[in-house]
Please model this.
Amino acid sequence: MHNLDFMLQTLVNLALHYPQAGRTPAQLRILAEDWAEDLAAFPRDIVERAVKAHRRESPYFPTVADIWRRCEALRRGLEARREAERALPGRTLTRDEQNALNTDWCAKILANLRGKMGCGAGMEKMDADLLHLLDEARDLAGTPFSLTSAYRCPKHNKAVGGVPTSAHTRGYAVDIRCVDSHSRFVILQALLEVGFRRIELAPTWIHVDNDPDKPRDVAFYRHGGAY
Model:
C-alpha cells in the first residue's frame, strides 16, 4: 500500500490543476486512502508517470480507474522491455544505457528524415514527451517504428500539403509507416495504451501527435488526407 501522504499530495496537486472538480480537503483524504490501496500493485514512479500523463492529456479530474489503466500500460511496457533485454546475449543493459539506446533510435531515424525533408529534422525540434511516449509504445508493440515524417519546417510542410497549423511544424507529431492490417492494429493498440489521444489512420501510415493546442480523444481517417 502506498504512503498516504504521497497519495494525498498527488491528489492535492491534481485538484489544483482541475479546480472545476470542486474537491474538498475531506474528499481528497478519502480518495487518497482508496487510491493508496487500489494502486498498491504499482511502484511510486509508475504512479507518478501515469498521473503526469493524465494531467497533460485530459481536461477532467481522473478516477482511480483512469490512473490504474495508465499504470498498467506503463507496467506492461516495462515488462516487455525487460523481456527484450533478457533475450539479448551477455549482460543486461543498465537504465542509463537503455535510455541512451532509446535516444539513439530516435536520433538515427530523424537524421535519416533530415535529407528527405530538407529542413533539419533534428532531435532539438521534437517534443521530448512525444519521443518518450513513442519509445514506450514501440516497446509495448514489440515491433520497429519506421517514421516517415516528424518535424517539418513551414516550407516543407507546405510542399507536402500539410495544413498551416500542423503539429509537425512544432515537433509534436510523427507519421509511422504501416502497410498491413495486423501491424496497424498492434501499433494502434500500443499508442493508445501509453496515452496518445490524437491519432489518424491512413493506408500506409499512422499519424500520432500530442499537440497541446488541439482537441484530445480524437481519431481520424482520410484517404490521402493532409496533416
